[in-house]
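Help needed: design a sequence for this.
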């Protein structure tokens, strides 16, 4: 068994696609009609056959509430690994990505948290 797709609730699929591709550097993998929404996924440019992140509409009331509550509590919705967190932090700040936590050493890892503008906090981690 392996992870092939993981969902991330977003409040606007197209805005999320733009943020994840243009700002974070992911690559659009799938973009297909799925009822009134789209099956829209992104992947790492370094592993385009690897796990996909589904930019899933938060249309269900439970999804909206979950997303709202973890955001308000400062809990990241997911985590992405980076090779050099300080370099990535500076690159993202230069293109106006807002961080709620600067790179911070936590044991053997360094983490930072950013706002994806689509209702989520995203944790970056350098192991």
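Sure. Designed sequence:
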């Amino acid at each position: 068994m392996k992870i092939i797709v993981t969902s991330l609730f977003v409040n606007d699929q197209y805005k999320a696609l733009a943020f994840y591709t243009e700002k974070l550097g992911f690559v659009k993998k799938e973009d297909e009609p799925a009822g009134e929404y789209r099956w829209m996924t992104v992947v790492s440019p370094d592993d385009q056959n690897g796990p996909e992140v589904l930019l899933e509409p938060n249309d269900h009331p439970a999804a909206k509430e979950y997303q709202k509550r973890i955001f308000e509590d400062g809990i990241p919705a997911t985590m992405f690994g980076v090779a050099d967190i300080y370099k990535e932090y500076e690159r993202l700040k230069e293109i106006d990505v807002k961080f709620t936590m600067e790179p911070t050493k936590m044991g053997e890892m360094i983490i930072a948290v950013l706002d994806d503008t689509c209702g989520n906090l995203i944790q970056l981690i350098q192991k």
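The CA atoms of residues 55 and 61 lie 17 Å apart.
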